[in-house]
Specification:
The protein is α/β, with parallel strands linked by helices. Helices cover 40% and strands 13% of the residues. It folds into two domains: 201 residues, no CATH class; 353 residues, no CATH class. The chain has 17 helices and 17 strands. A seven-stranded mixed beta sheet has the order 8-9-10-7-13-16-17, covered by helices on one side. Strand 11 and strand 12 form a beta hairpin. Helix 7 packs across helix 17 and helix 9 crosses helix 17. It is elongated, with a radius of gyration of 51 Å. Keywords: Membrane, Signal-anchor, Transmembrane, Transmembrane helix. This is Trichome birefringence-like N-terminal domain-containing protein.
């Protein structure tokens, strides 16, 4: 029973048992090797498809570094050479030779090539192994003995500009002679391979995609750096803008509360603002330089307030501030003096003076003794309208049928409709209220049909100013910038303009306040200020009375006309001009204050807009 075939065990000899164990072990090792060659790369490739760009780049870099280390190791080279039957006898020498011939590789392909058939020759097997692209300065080829050797590349200049990429193409078993053909680097977005019919086709490459992603990442880094620089630059710009805004705000606050007319005259060698005698719009009586006045020091004084600095004249900026606007002066001949000053100051700045001209097509200007100067390049005008009292000069009939001149205290001047839409208005009146006819007040002032037999000049002045203020509040735009220039001091000595008063001996300005004459009509100033304070619209009062009192040296005096005859000289000594001002001169400073106020308003609007 124990010897039955079903219970009999097969017992191998001891030596044969070891052979079986070895065969099983070798079979297992071969299977593992085959799996590592075919399955792992394919699995890796499929996993790569599900990774995002950053994960792919990181994984490829890690795998490539490991592959490069293995391929370049001496052990790999020895085993690979020894595997070929033709190289077994020369494996030792070939190993040392190839270590020096094959340069180190920068990037290795991860794509698994197709294995050759068992019937393929050794040369096919050699062509199946991974193709390694050499560095930029060499190419790899095979000599007649099957050894690898390096040869210089004829495209170093081109290759040095590209990245080193490992060829992932497997040689076809049917075309042995093409196994070591020159590998052509495909474009960055595709790989080139051959199908069964030998046609070329593009195949997406994960390695190329990885490199593209790497390039994109590098571009993103560069863009990020640029964005950081832009951000820092924007921060600097924003900080500078904040500083400018703070500076502008402080400047506005200081200028708003500054008392411009409390100051003194200081010498300034940079003056005058325009060349004497160069302005074609200059009135002859204001052109003291051409009329032969020997002193020129009166042109070299600048007004300096005690509490702030008056903005220095910037003609180009003033031209821009006036662009597309109407600047209008309304009043007596002292305001015409100021108008001529502004025209000459602006004309000296323009690039093409031929584009500054009088608007001769407006007939009403010459009829009313008014003028308009056009600055065509900047599309604005500077105009003057004569209105010595700001109210209407009138004629009425007496009981006997004769006519007499009166002053309508209830009607604004007839030219008012011509300038009520102006953007900037500069008014004045005062000197004509001191003349004999107005100061006497007998049968001269009229309201409606009523002519006052007797009315005090200051009462008449208040009525006239009230009429003007009412028109200003109802007819002038609230957007307009309105100035009223105060009384400009005269400097007659020994009489008035018609009674032998002179000023031709005054060659220097008055320096100290205690030396001021204090003889000008303060009553007119008080009446003006009383009316202006009751106005419902904003108005800037150019209180030039005190600052002009210092300048007894700056009047035309006897220099009112060029090339005078002896008879004219006798007359001119009797009737000197100690009311108007030489130009360049004091009215330039008045206009500088207007410029400062325009600049202040512009910056206030700019600050309000940015907030």
């Amino acid at each position: 029973m124990l010897d039955s075939p079903s219970n009999r065990r097969i017992i191998f000899p001891k030596g044969r048992r070891y052979v079986i164990f070895a065969f099983v072990f070798i079979t297992f090792f071969v299977l593992i090797s085959v799996l590592s060659v075919f399955i792992i790369p394919v699995t890796t490739y499929h996993h790569l498809l599900h990774y995002n760009q950053s994960q792919v780049s990181s994984l490829i870099s890690r795998l490539l570094s490991n592959s490069t280390t293995v391929v370049n190791s001496p052990q790999f080279s020895r085993k690979f050479n020894a595997f070929s039957p033709n190289r077994r006898s020369k494996s030792k020498s070939s190993h040392h030779h190839n270590d020096h011939q094959i340069p180190k590789t920068k990037v290795v392909s991860m794509e698994a090539p197709a294995p050759p058939s068992p019937s393929s020759s050794n040369r096919d097997f050699r062509s199946w192994r991974t193709r390694i692209r050499p560095p930029d300065d060499a190419r790899v080829s095979e000599n007649t003995n099957g050894h690898l050797r390096a040869k210089p590349s004829h495209h170093n200049d081109h290759i040095s500009k590209t990245k080193s990429v490992v060829s992932m193409e497997a040689a076809s078993p049917s075309s042995n002679h093409d196994s070591w053909k020159t590998r052509i680097r495909p474009p960055d977005d595709a790989r080139v391979s051959e199908d069964r019919n030998g046609n070329s086709r593009k195949v997406k490459s994960p390695v190329t995609d990885a490199h593209n992603n790497s390039n994109n990442n590098q571009s993103d880094v560069k863009i990020g750096k640029l964005e950081s620089l832009d951000f820092a630059r924007n921060l600097d710009i924003e900080e500078e803008e904040k500083k400018r805004r703070r500076h502008r705000k402080n400047w506005i606050e200081k200028m708003t509360h500054c008392r411009f007319f409390n100051g003194r005259w200081v010498k300034d060698q940079s003056l005058p603002l325009y060349k004497p005698g160069s302005c074609p719009f200059m009135d002859e009586s204001f052109n003291c330089f051409n009329n032969g006045k020997p002193e020129t020091a009166y042109q070299k004084y600048r007004w300096q307030p005690y509490e702030c600095n008056l903005p220095r004249w910037n003609g180009k900026k003033m031209l821009r501030l006036l662009k597309g606007k109407r600047l209008v002066y309304v009043g007596d001949s002292l305001n015409r003096n100021m108008w001529v000053s502004m025209v000459c100051m602006l004309r000296s700045i323009v690039d093409n003076s031929s584009n500054v001209y009088e608007a001769s097509d407006w007939k009403e200007y010459h009829v009313s003794k008014s003028y308009s100067i056009v600055f065509r390049d900047y599309n604005f005008t500077v105009e003057y309208y004569k209105a010595s009292f700001l109210v209407q000069e009138w004629q009425t009939k007496n009981a006997n049928g004769t006519t007499k001149e009166t002053l309508r205290l209830d009607l604004v001047h007839r030219t008012s409709d011509l300038y009520r839409n102006a953007d900037i208005l500069v008014f004045n009146t005062g000197h004509w209220w001191t003349h004999e006819k107005t100061s006497a007040g007998k049968g001269y002032y009229q309201e409606g049909d009523h002519v006052y037999k007797q009315l005090h000049v200051m009462e008449a002045f208040r009525k006239a100013m009230t009429t003007w203020a009412r028109w200003l509040e109802t007819k002038v735009s609230r957007k307009a910038l309105v100035f009223f220039r105060g009384y400009s001091s005269s400097h007659f000595s020994g009489g008035q303009w018609n009674s032998g008063g002179t000023c031709d001996q005054d060659n220097d300005p008055i320096i100290l306040e205690k030396d001021l004459p204090h003889k000008n009509n303060r009553v007119i100033m008080e009446a003006v200020e009383a009316v202006l304070t009751r106005l419902k619209i904003p108005i800037f009062y150019l209180n030039v009375t005190k600052m002009s009192e210092y300048r007894s040296d700056a009047h035309p005096s006897i220099y009112m006309k060029p090339n005078m005859t002896a008879e004219e000289r006798k007359t001119v000594f009797k009737f000197q001009d100690c009311s108007h001002w030489c130009l360049p001169g004091v009215p330039d400073t008045w206009n500088e204050i207007i410029y400062g106020q325009l600049l202040l308003k512009y910056r206030q609007q700019l600050l309000k807009y940015k907030h």
